[in-house]
Specification:
Radius of gyration: 18 Å
Structural class: alpha+beta
Number of strands: 4
Number of domains: 2
Low-confidence stretches: none
Helix content: 25-40%
Order of helices and strands: EEHEEHHHHHH
Mean pLDDT: 89
Shape: globular
Number of helices: 7
């Protein structure tokens, strides 16, 4: 009998935006689980809270956004009560988010290689050379052709699909 490991569990998540004139409910009682090796797609109409759910998991809400209920368990640990300093250690090491629009996610002034290597330098005790080698490897793993050459390219030099992979 094989047992699957629960990677992420969202229980009754509620997120609100506290504005000057009103409180707006953005996520209302969302629950889902993701097990190891499982791919889950979150679908719904525009404005239904898909992105806000992801931002809530990552604790990357705008200043007016607040998780007002529920739990977000990553490997069994609840992320909701963690301090911002604790969340910075979790983000990029244990969980990350791939944003839908790469042109707003990628820095146009930095090469693709530098941007892929940057989190490795920030979150790992690695040298610049080791981070660049890993970035090159990762670009190849996601199917970017000629990854060595793409390392020195800027986002505008890649197609939309290649930018998403990066």
């Amino acid at each position: 009998m094989t047992t699957t490991k629960r990677v992420l569990e969202i229980e009754h998540l509620r997120t609100e935006f506290h504005l000057r004139s009103a409180t707006v409910g953005a996520v209302d009682d969302v629950s889902l689980t993701i097990d190891e090796g499982e791919c889950v797609g979150l679908v719904g109409e525009s404005g239904c809270g898909k992105s806000t759910t992801g931002l809530s998991v990552m604790r990357l809400l705008p200043r007016v956004g607040h998780i007002t209920g529920g739990r977000v368990l990553l490997g069994g640990r609840d992320l909701v009560p963690l301090s911002e300093a604790e969340m910075r250690r979790v983000r990029g090491n244990e969980v990350s988010m791939i944003f839908q629009d790469p042109m707003t996610s990628l820095n146009p002034t930095m090469t693709i290689g530098a941007q892929v290597a940057e989190p490795l330098l920030i979150h790992g005790a690695t040298s610049k050379k080791a981070a660049e080698a890993r970035a090159l490897e990762v670009l190849g793993l996601v199917g970017i052709p000629n990854p060595r050459e793409r390392m020195d390219d800027y986002p505008h030099q890649l197609s939309g699909g290649l930018r998403q992979r990066a």
